Every structure is written in C-alpha cells, then in structure tokens.
Amino acid sequence: MMRNIGILGAMAQEIDEVKALLTEKTIVKIANREFVVGKINNVRCVVAFSKWGKVAATITATLLVQEFGVTDLFFIGTAGALADGLKVGDIVISKRLVQHDLDARPMISRFELPLLNRIYVNSDPELTDLAGKAVSNLLERGVENMVSDAAVKEFNLAPTLHFGDIASGDQFINSDVKRKEILDLLPDVLCVEMEGAAVAQVCLEFGVPFTVIRTISDTADHNARVDFGRFIVEVANAYSRAVISEIMRLL
Ligand code: ADE
Fold it and tell me: Could you tell me whether strands 4-9 and 72-81 are parallel, antiparallel, or unpaired per DSSP bridges?
C-alpha cells in the first residue's frame, strides 16, 4: 500500500514551516481546520495544525484518518519537562502516552481509558525508531545547523534525545505544585503537553501507527509562561521543519 503520512503540529507557526516543505499542494478546509495535502520527497502527506487540547486534537486526528486515509501519523510539538535532567531544547519521543487528567474512579482505576482496559497507549515501535534516527542525525550534525547562533546562546541549547512516557491533559502546567502532583502519580513521565494521548487514542481505535515528537520548551514550573512564547518563535519552528524533513528523507 502506498504510504500517506499524516503530520500534525501543536502550534500554527510551527506547522506553517512544515507546510512550506510540501510540493503539489492542495488545501482542504473542514471543521475550521486547514489540511494541506501534497508531497515531501515524493511521499504523499497531509499536514495540519492540530489545535490545542485533547478534544481539538481528537477532531483533527480523526479527520486525518477518516477523510484523508493517512497510513501513519507523526505528531510534533513542544512540551514541559517533568523529569529531572531534561532541559529546554531537548527532544522527547514517545514510547507510551497517558492522560494525566483522566479519572473515572471508582468505576475504573485512575488514568484508565474507559472501555479500553488500559492506562497507556504505546506508540508504534517502527515510527518511534524512525523518528529517533531522524533526530539523532540532526543532533549529530549540530543544533547550530537547525537554529540561529543567537537562539543557541539565548536558550543555552545542547540538545539530547530521550525516549519514554508522555502525559497529556487539558492544562498548561506552570506551577511546582501541579508538576509534582503529576510526577507523584506517574513517576516515569518525562514531559507534559496537551494533545499526544488524545491522538494516541484515536490511532489506537483506528489501528493507525503513530508516534509523538516533543521539544522541551519549558520546565512546567513557575518559569513556564515566560519561556514559552520566545522558544516557539526562535527554536520550535525550525526544529519541526528539520525533524519532519529528515523523517521524510528516511522513509
Ligand atoms: N506544552 C509546552 N509546555 C507545556 C506545559 N508546561 N504544559 C502543557 N503543555 C505544554
């Protein structure tokens, strides 16, 4: 079967950079969303801004699968670090996704996905490995080939790559208290964001392989708000473009 790669991004500007990589573009609008259909490196793909939060991302991911028939799905965006040792600019690729704000106790256990009998959704091992290879290649070439020297200095970038659990919820986490609450209950989680686990659930139900790639933009504590905006403009957009083009080159 011919591959048809779905690419979702959590920030509009970030995904604009990815859209710029496409040739033979067609734009399709559904449900206040813009889907750009085209090719990167001669591989068919569909790129869209997921919008923010689990519900919005669920709608976008479902449309990608049902309307555009994607065979694989990559989600790219930023996240707040939970694990010690992760720093701004590092990249996390998902092994498992969990919704940290899901709680249907006492019917089922905390974090359990209703009627799905599980807490975690695994990302696809092959796509996860492929994304890992793409990021490793880029990091070997050096971060200064992805972003400006000024940004490398400003954010003290010396990125490393990590694989592990990512938690999603409908909250921007920017306090030490909230950060600790999540870590106490889900100690293996590397970072938090607002869409990955929702997209994972869509992909699980439709049987579409997926993986999530997140750049650490903040430390999910009281500094989170300040760091975030500047980081998106100066770093995340360029990272996304580089990572997606390298993934499409390796496919
Ligand atoms: N995306 C980037 N940083 C985040 C944070 N601190 N909380 C939730 N989503 C994020």
Answer: parallel
Class of domain 4-250: alpha beta
To test the pocket of ligand 1, the residue of 51, 88, 172 to mutate (highest count of ligand atoms within 8 Å of its CB) is: 172
Residue count (the chain):
251
pTM strictly above 0.85? yes
In this structure, which residue's CA is closest to atom 1 in ligand 1?
79
* CB 243 within 8 Å of CB 249: no
Distance from Cα 2 to the centre of ligand 1, integer Å: 35
Choosing from 218, 221, 227, 246, which is the catalytic residue? 218
pLDDT of residue 175 exceeding 70, the answer is yes
191 close to ligand 1 (CB < 6 Angstrom): no
From CA 50, how far away is CA 11, in angstroms rounded? 8
| Ligand 1 near 189 CB (within 6 A) | no
| Annotated domain spans of the chain | 4-250
Distance CA 206, CA 65 (A): 8
Q: What is the pLDDT of residues 28-81, one digit of tens each?
A: 999 999 999 999 999 999 999 999 999 999 999 999 999 999 999 999 999 999
